[in-house]
Every structure is written in C-alpha cells, then in structure tokens.
Write a structure and sequence with these properties.
D-Maltodextrin-Binding Protein, domain 2, five-stranded antiparallel beta sheet, 6 helices, single chain
Length: 160
C-alpha cells in the first residue's frame, strides 16, 4: 500500500539488524519498515516516523534444555551463557540489566535462535511480539520467561 501511494516500485530486501542504519545512510534502501526501534544513537542518522507500536524486551529460553528451568527472569543469568543479535535493542537492554551474564553476540536473529535451539546458550532477548510469536509457533524450543525488562518505540526509518 505504501509503494502504491508513493507510486513507487516495491522491492523487498532482507537485512540484518546491524545493517539497517548503514543501508539507509548509503541509500541501499529507501525505508526500513521492520521492527525498527528508535534509539538516540540511531536518531542521529535516521529521521524516524512517529512510533506505530511500543514493545518490551523479553527473554526466550529453550524448554527442551533442562538447564532452562532455573531461568525465571534476567536476574537469573549471572554467569550463564546468553546470546543476542548484534545491534539489536533487546540485546543492548539485556547487557544493561544483566551485565554478569556470559554474553555471546550473533550476526543475525536466525543465528541467535540456532544457538538457543542447539543449547549453546541458555537464553536470548527479543521484543515481546517476536518472543510470544516464537513461543506460539515452536513451544518445544521457545518459551518466554520473566517480565519485560525494557520498552522500545517501533518506527519506520525513511531515507533522510
């Protein structure tokens, strides 16, 4: 609908979290519409739209991993292996609230999911919408635990 309104040809591209801002700045893409969180750092390079959603960050564990039973919230992550997608705001928020966890960064969201399902890490952070959707689609490997540990505004990021 956006492309039609703008009388533009729609071309969808998949980009990972850390490539969103560089893709806009380099004019590789015209707009980022996925779950793009407005942060102060990103706002220096991107003129975000008005937020269309507010989400929180949650933890996902793998219920097939017996070790996950001891994880009830981010407060239980001290010394535990935790993985996150580089540049993701849920990952950055988790580093602030659980600095004593053993942090492992992954290039993509798919990589962090693989690390959780293969039991390389005990937990991964994600936004609440994605977390509950993962749990619904694959309850054998994904379970949301604990309360929200941050809140983010989701916006579109048009090219400036």
């Amino acid at each position: 609908m956006l492309a039609t309104t703008l009388k533009a040809k729609l071309e969808l591209q998949g980009i990972n979290t850390i490539a969103r801002v560089p893709s806009l700045v380099s004019k590789k893409v015209d707009v980022v519409i996925c779950g793009f969180t407005r942060t102060l750092e990103r706002s220096l390079a991107v003129d975000f739209t008005t937020p269309y959603a507010i989400v929180g960050s949650v933890l996902l564990v793998n219920p097939s991993d017996p070790r996950s039973a001891e994880i009830k919230s981010y407060r239980d992550l001290k010394g535990k292996p935790v993985g996150g997608s580089m540049g993701g705001t849920a990952w950055l928020a988790l580093q602030k609230v659980a600095p004593e966890a053993q942090m492992m960064s992954f290039k993509t969201i798919a990589d962090q999911h693989q690390a959780l399902t293969s039991q390389k890490v005990l937990a991964i952070p994600t936004d609440s919408v994605m977390g509950y959707d993962q749990q619904r689609m694959d309850p054998q490997h994904f379970k949301v635990v604990g309360d929200l540990f941050s809140f983010e505004e989701i916006c579109m990021g048009p090219q400036g």
